[in-house]
């Protein structure tokens, strides 16, 4: 599953292993209520990812990184004019004033949806359409929400995750929403998604966070959904 997220006031996403940039640097995107995307990029270390001394662990790998002597360590904020990431998570009118639950942040998910080797970004919106941005390389992105068919207009989205649900090698998308339950969008491998009517997922609950894993060892991903007030599934 290509997702790392934090639920609560802020949603946070770090690019997972399959989406490593060509240079050994780290990207972090933050979204919060009434905030746009804050895209932070660490200063490059001057090393290619395959030049690092990787230590293989169980289901992951890690490598020690030295701090460059020529630049300061830390992150640099990239403006929307450079990245093309113009998403803002907002609430308007009475909903902003009266709905404390909706003040929570929404989800962020990352995966290579079109098989070009670059991490694409999906942002869940509390009021308004969600957004899918295709990674063009060089920290530039293009909004492909319309052609991809994953806007989820008309619902208050609270979370999202990419995972290869049907085992065809393409990352599919799951989206949670208030009174919308959990929705599944199946990827055709080119970044175009279709929503099956027979997924078996509950659509009437107030779904918040979600997690996937093979809990019974049968080779298929199982799904756990945390609902607000409603029974967990």
From TrEMBL:
Pfam families cross-referenced by the UniProt entry: FG-GAP_3
InterPro entries assigned: FG-GAP, Integrin_alpha_N
SUPFAM superfamilies cross-referenced by the UniProt entry: Integrin alpha N-terminal domain
Keywords, comma-separated and alphabetical: Signal
PANTHER family, A to Z: ATP_GTP-BINDING PROTEIN, SENSOR KINASE-RELATED
Listed name of the protein: ASPIC/UnbV domain-containing protein
